[in-house]
Amino acid sequence: MNKLSFKNQKEAFPLHFHPEFCISIIKSGVELINIREKQFVGNVNDITITHPYELHSNPLYSSTNLLSFDTLYISDETVRAILPLGQTVHFEYRVIRNGELNALFENLMHPEDSAVGDLLQKFILHLSSFGELTTKSKIRKPLAYWDNIDTYIEQNIKEIISLEKLAEVVNLNKYSFARKFKETTGISPIHYTLMKKVFHCKKTLTKKCSITEKAYEYNFTDTSHFSKSFKRFIGVRPKTFQNEFLT
To answer: Checking CA distances to 70, which of 119, 181, 226, 244 falls within 20 to 30 Å?
Structure first.
């Protein structure tokens, strides 16, 4: 389980996904979540949820809306370890309002070390009562039809990955590949590659590592490009993430 706190966000999040359940509680402002043709609205004290690998975007509610929220990232493996018969949970509606669930969320954000395991179990069990238990996730991974592309990106995550190189992997010209990729995944191959780089780099950040060195390690143009890309998908700049969320 990982946790982040966001204050006064006033920028939209582009189409993206998280490898974990992304579970947030709204502290102020209004959150919009677009998932395919549906839009969900989270208000103060609401808990909002997206599933692992679920493509979604968070457009601005208004130019004056300052959104603050706390977020828990909980892996599907953790959920299955707690729920009976190794099941996971699917939420048809992505907004929940429940006082007991909110209290458990707040305790998880500021727990006593010895209580984390029990709190997490209680939270997941209560959270699952608002969804449907299932043995198989109902969310298809964005690259379900492009496994070879995903493998190539992961194996070359620190290299410069061009559209031409990706197209070569599937023996298509770059224009046909870009069109077909977006038709099946909902996002462009370059957008997807950038997102994967940011998420991979996020996992390798430590409290004392050099942000500049990380930028060049992952072949970003420069530190500014890395910082802007990181904030685009994570919500904060890498230096802020490093200083405030790493121990």
So the answer is: 226
Q: Which residues does residue 41 pair with via DSSP β-bridges, in sequence order? A: 32
Q: What is the mean pLDDT of the chain?
A: 91
**CA–CA gap between residue 185 and residue 142 (Å, rounded):** 5
Encoded tokens for 76:
């599907």
- CA-based diameter of the chain, in Å? 56
88 sits in the region (left: phi over 0; alpha: psi -120 to 50; else beta) called beta
Each residue of 34-90: pLDDT tens digit? 998 899 999 999 999 999 999 999 998 998 988 999 999 999 999 999 999 999 999
- Provide the Cα torsion 215, 75, 66, 16; round to 10°: 60
- CB atoms near residue 212 (< 10 Å): 11
Residue numbers of the chain with a pLDDT score lower than 50: none
Residue type, 214: K
3-state class (DSSP) for residue 54: coil
Q: How far apart, in whole angstroms, are the C-alpha atoms of residue 164 and residue 121?
A: 46
SS (H, E, C) 169-217: HCCCCHHHHHHHHHHHHCCCHHHHHHHHHHHHHHHHCCCCCCHHHHHHH
